[in-house]
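Give me the fold.
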Amino acid sequence: MRSTSIHSQQRLFRGEVLSLTREKRKVRRFSFLFEPPKGGMEDSVNELRSTIYELLVEAEKAYGSRDAVRYKVKRPGENGKKETKVESKTYTQLRNDSERFAAALGGLGERGKHIAVIGATSYSWITAYYGIVSSGSVAVPLDANLPAEDLCELIDRADVTTLVYDETKADVARKASELCGGLKNLIAMQADSAVSGALSLWELIQGAEPDKSCNPKPEDLATIMFTSGTTGKSKGVMLTHRNLAENATSLDMGYEPGMVVMSVLPIHHAYCLSMDILKGTSIGAVICINDSLLRVAQNIKLFEPEMILMVPLMVETLAKKLEEAALIPAPIIKAKVFGKQFHTICSGGAYLNPKYIDLFKRYNITILQGYGMTECAPVISTNYNQAMKAGSVGKCMPNCEAKTVEEEIWVRGTSVMQGYYKMPEETAQTLEDGWLKTGDLGYVDEDGFLFLTGRKKNLIITPNGENVSPEEIENKLGEKRLIQEVLVRDSEGMIEAEIFPDFEYAAKKRIKDVPAQLQKAIDQYNSTAPLYKRIFKLKVRDVEFEKNTTKKIKRF
């Protein structure tokens, strides 16, 4: 079967599930194209783009004077005190600023080099990214939450020659200038830098003419993104212009230009960069920048978004608040917390309990659960409008096909990475004949929906040879309100559950013996579980598990 792709003019309605045996391995392949939105493709604002620069240029042509980005700033008020105001930049400004920065990089002799960007989501970050990749250089987004020493290691490993940073990361810039021998330029996003010798991003932009000669090719390397991972050393994922641009634009979701989205996830993460920024730009959305996770509720009221991308942990936190307010009429809660205009949450990055999808439906909010990984730029599958099924992660993206090999999901298509930067052995282990081995276990049902059951490397092999997915058990236990976090693993030949309880919930419900209640939950699970999947050990934690920057529990 050939990889499938979609253009806005096409009308393909099909689903295939093939079962076959190849090299004594059980292989199941599936590829699905989505039903296009009602109203027909003539109403579509989304066209397939194969380079990020093409995506930006075509968006500017279509939406020039419309707002592209909105963000908060502190400005002096009438009484002299600083007040919070909302500023915006249009699509024309975004393109021009990006092309000016591309020209400035050329003037520095950095065209085609590797340029790192670090900092919170901001208009400056977005402009720098578009300018870097448009110029033919390679952007290296870095996790702002990592220690300076770790960031310097990544800068060296990625052969970075220029670092663009915001004021909160001045310590990183100083450390990098001392430790990273290949680093030639420091560029500060703010006008006044506390780092000696640093250039100013906006002085460079204002002093350059827009570079209209930008012409990156689809197969050119655009971005190196380091995986956060729950185990092992982070890897530099090499993503081309085609990988990122087609992942962002291959699926027409039927959204109208001017739709307001609020970006709350870290911008260095593939999910945020691809869907909030690249897809948001391609459809003419207004991208509103949330300046702090502590102010999400406040910023929802300020920006009045219609859609937000979230990870399941954020959805679960909101769900708990909604459950506590269950006696208040849903329309009142919806208007007060989200606003009447809010309608969609896109969720990805981890398992989401299907009960939360039903809970949010009561508030007229749709949760679209998807699946992906950085190595696939990142979206592999998603639920969408009529193509939705509880518990699944949807059907494959139009530019992607997948198969299962011994229950492991393999993916092929235009979103699959080139490989890991300077890690040939790891690349060879992950890519085989164009197929990406995801490491995720799953299956496809008779309707073509993909379901995940766990991670291959996390499998527990019992003494009698049975394979047990710890994630399957964790998801079942996680349905209990008292259980906030859980990790299931092998312990001396027995299955152990380590649990961090929701102590706040326990206090509200006046639960005095928390371990005893947790044991009751385990006993209830064990009563219906096969013998080889039963939990024989319980460990109760007083503090949360250590997590990576995408809020996944570190297993080892």
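The chain has a mean pLDDT of 89.
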